[in-house]
Amino acid sequence: IVLVAQISSSGHVSGQLGYETNVFLNPAILEQDEEILEQADLWDNGTFQGLSLHHTLKARYGDHKLKLITNGSIARYQTELDANRYTYDLGFSYRSKFAPKKYIEFSPLLNRVNRDGINLANAVIRTPFSFTMLTVPLHLDFYLGQKTWLKTEGGYRYKRYDRSNGESLHYTAPFLNMQLSKKWVSDRSTQKLTLRTAYMWRTYQELAL
């Protein structure tokens, strides 16, 4: 018996240079301590330089596929040093054909963002910019023939924000996604119709430490 696996590796590095308005995602108007703050008081704008790295390692044996993904990025602002942002992602996936035209995939993903400040964009709940998030999805995909796919995804997400003002905030969220797609291919064009539905239920918990 001879076992042969195909292994490939790819990666790239990219740089960014730009100007960003409302760096801290503040609202255009805010009432604070009986005082009305407007956009000129709330918004900070600035230029930034960024660097991103991406690497993917793939392995394939028959109907089984493995993938390891690592990403990292740095964004440094020239005038708003508190806005500097550092991120990394670490992901793994295993995909297998378990029956004719039927596929299963397990693809956990870990995200980390490190940045000072509080996100005020959501008027209901305000969260720190820094967080750690783990997403654990399971995919079941079915090829229905005639370039038609039914793809389903169910899983669980945990997101923990960095401590702020002596408090710890996190949420848990089960989720379910479904997608039905159909593709039409001719000599002149390719057309695709996709129908999606998604469900997620977040439960927040805040603890005073």
Describe this structure in words.
The chain is mainly beta. 2% of the residues lie in helices and 72% in strands. The chain has one helix and 15 strands, in the order E-E-E-H-E-E-E-E-E-E-E-E-E-E-E-E. The longest helix has 4 residues, at 39-42. It starts with 5 loop residues before the first strand and ends with a strand.
Enumerate the spans where pLDDT stays under 50 for 5 or more consecutive residues. none
Shape: globular
Category from helices, strands and their pairing: mainly beta
Q: What value does the average pLDDT take?
A: 89
Task: Give helix and strand order, one letter per element, not per position.
Answer: EEEHEEEEEEEEEEEE
What is the share of helical residues? under 10%
The total count of strands amounts to 15
Radius of gyration: 22 Å
Number of helices: 1
Terminal CA distance: 59 Å
Binned strand content: over 45%
The profile of the biggest β sheet is: 11 strands, antiparallel
Task: State the gist of this model.
With 209 residues, this protein is mainly β. It has one helix and 15 strands. It has one helix spanning 39-42; strands at residues 6-20, 29-32, 35-38, 46-61, 64-77, 85-99, 102-106, 109-114, 118-119, 127-128, 131-145, 148-164, 167-185, 190-200, 203-208.
